[in-house]
UniProtKB/TrEMBL annotation, chain A:
This is Transport permease protein. GO terms for molecular function: ABC-type transporter activity. One of its GO terms (cellular component) is ATP-binding cassette (ABC) transporter complex. InterPro entries: ABC-2_transporter, ABC2_TM, ABC2_TM_bact-type, ABC_2_transport. The keyword Repeat does not apply. Keywords: Cell membrane, Membrane, Transmembrane, Transmembrane helix, Transport. The keyword Repeat does not apply. PROSITE patterns: ABC_TM2 (PS51012).
Automatic annotation (TrEMBL), chain B:
The keyword Nucleotide-binding applies. It comes from Alicyclobacillus macrosporangiidus. SMART domains: AAA. GO terms for molecular function: ATP binding; ATP hydrolysis activity. This is ABC-2 type transport system ATP-binding protein. The lineage of its organism: Bacteria, Bacillati, Bacillota, Bacilli, Bacillales.
């Protein structure tokens, strides 16, 4: 399993698109939307500007976490298409070891991504991060959630195009509906209700509770549990599908 | 009794309505190079994947070096090095990175892994390019590295599926030499190919597969003696073929004729007599070397590359 982990980490680091999608693009979004909205909505009010940044920094962090699904999709489908999975299946590695080996680097990537993006928000925009234990726990739950869904989608989709479409639906639809682009309170009532079905809503709410309202771990347990629930559901779906995915690779 | 390297007993495998293997029974002796021959789609890759435990047969028994593959596929996989037809390497990683990855899958670690990686790279002639990204390699170099990845755990049985497809002559020779070297070291090599001349160059035993059935198998010399039609090639300055009652079949070939006969020397004598008596200039008169290509032709009635 650790061979797969090491290999995936190397491939992620050397993949040009990964660095851009997971780190550079969200920082560009933060800078762009931070300067546009914070300056325009509250030009002379530092507190108002901070309110906007408290929406944007966790919002874009959460939004771009779900782009890990694209990275996982490319890894899994690439391994299947180019015969690598069939070759790995001829080694003594257990199927679960393979799955775990592909999953762990994605989790690590999200942990690094969240750390960099939140640190960027803190050092560049002076955004308060709150209780580090609660924040770390939430980031871990968010990583489990995003990568769990990524695992499920990678193994269930018929091809890369379908996977990309589904990922965009989850990333963009979840961001719009989950209150990442505008504060929850400003959303229509129907959208507010629907947002509860997106992991993005729970992640954003919990991050804002910790970062803005000073909540500790005990105050965000429900949100953390929902995020882990999404992730575990994804992992279970992936486990259910993996034998068929493997068969399709070796035939 | 020492069990054979591979034993397939009445193995059957279908993909939906397509029968890939039909009651295939094969035995591969230890320490030999065994050629599994046949055209594309004959069932060679399916047979290999079943031996590696990657595919499950619908029926039949498979054992590798005495290990029942169905009962303990992971133990069987530890004994086997499998080189698939596809080049399965990570192009953005170096040769060393790739080999360390594959070695790790077989549980190799630390200094042992490093030594095995260097050894494998030397063996396939890529030590000087060890730190280059695989994406910068030629097709032949990738094929060699593809083989190196299966040698790290020092398997007792190496399975090569079409290892020379699309390679330059230099790499092809390197691969054939590598196979000879491995066999000399006591490794059993199974070599699946549709290039019959390569099989003749390296294999001790062969089996010819077509449409999922074994047409013949045995020692290379025996198979050639049993099935290769004996033939004489004649080219002479005459539009008509030689008159020869001993010839079972006469076919136009290149600038002359091929006369198939169980008595080729009689045929040659008769052709020479005719040429002399009719004053026809004889340009070529050769006893044709039996080949696996002609064995396949005689067994199936079609050319291998049809």
């Amino acid at each position: 399993m650790w061979s797969i982990v090491r290999k995936e980490c190397k491939l992620m680091i050397r993949g040009k698109g990964n660095l851009f999608f997971l780190l550079v693009m969200p920082m560009l979004f933060m800078v762009l939307f931070g300067s546009v909205f914070a300056k325009n909505m509250a030009p002379d009010d530092p507190n108002g500007q901070m309110l906007v940044l408290n929406q944007i920094v966790p919002g874009y962090t959460v939004m771009f976490v779900f782009f890990i699904i694209l990275t996982m999709l490319r890894s899994f489908l690439g391994e299947r298409e180019f015969g690598m999975l069939a070759r790995i299946a001829a080694t003594p590695l257990r199927p679960l070891g393979y799955l775990a080996g592909m999953w762990i680097p994605a989790v690590l990537a999200v942990l690094v991504q969240c750390t960099v993006l939140l640190a960027f928000g803190h050092f560049v925009y002076k955004v308060h991060l709150g209780d580090p234990v609660a924040l770390a726990a939430l980031v871990i739950c968010l990583a489990v959630c995003g990568t769990g869904l990524g695992l499920a989608i990678s193994l269930w989709v018929r091809g890369e195009n379908q996977g990309r479409a589904l990922t965009m639906l989850i990333v963009m639809g979840g961001a719009a509906l989950g209150g990442l682009w505008m504060p929850y309170d400003m959303m229509p009532a129907g959208a507010q209700l629907a947002s509860h079905f997106t992991p993005q809503f729970w992640a954003q709410r919990a991050l804002q509770d910790v970062m803005v309202h000073g909540a500790h771990l005990s105050g965000v347990l429900t949100s953390a549990a929902v995020l882990v629930g999404f992730g575990v559901a994804g992992l279970l779906l992936a486990l259910l599908r993996f034998p068929r995915f493997l068969r399709s690779a070796v035939h | 009794m020492i069990p054979p390297a591979i034993s397939l007993q009445s193995v059957r495998k279908s993909y939906g309505a397509n029968l890939a293997l039909a009651d295939v029974t094969l035995t591969v002796r230890r320490g030999t190079c065994f050629g599994l021959l046949g055209p594309n789609g004959a069932g060679k890759s399916t047979a290999m994947k079943i031996v590696c435990g990657v595919l499950k047969p619908d029926a039949g028994q498979v054992s590798v070096l005495g290990v029942d593959v169905a009962r303990d596929p992971f133990a069987a996989r530890r004994l086997v090095g499998y080189v698939p037809q596809d080049i399965t390497l990570y192009e953005s990683l170096t040769a060393v990175d790739n080999l360390q990855f594959f070695g790790g899958l077989y549980g190799l670690r630390g200094a042992t892994l490093s030594n095995r990686v260097q050894d494998a790279l030397r063996r396939v002639g890529l030590a000087s390019r060890a730190r280059d990204r695989v994406g910068t390699y030629s097709g032949g170099m990738k094929r060699r590295l593809n083989i190196a990845a299966a040698l790290l755990h020092r398997p007792q049985l190496l399975i090569l599926d079409e290892p020379t497809v699309g390679v330059d002559p230099q790499s092809r020779n390197h691969i054939l030499e590598l196979i000879r070297g491995l066999r000399a070291d006591g490794v059993t090599v199974v070599y699946a190919t549709h290039y019959m001349e390569e099989a003749e160059a390296v294999c001790d035993d062969v089996a010819i597969l077509d449409h999922g059935r074994v047409l013949t198998q045995g020692a290379l010399g025996e198979v050639l003696a049993r099935h290769a039609p004996r033939a004489v090639y004649v080219a002479w300055a005459n539009d008509a073929p030689p008159q020869c009652p001993e010839a079972e079949e006469i076919q136009a070939h290149r600038q002359g004729w091929v006369l198939r006969s169980p008595q080729p020397l009689t045929v040659m004598r008769r052709v020479m007599d005719q040429a002399e008596s009719r004053s026809i200039r004889l340009e070529a008169l050769e006893l044709m070397r039996p080949s696996l290509e002609s064995v396949f032709l005689s067994l199936t009635g079609t050319s291998l590359r049809d």
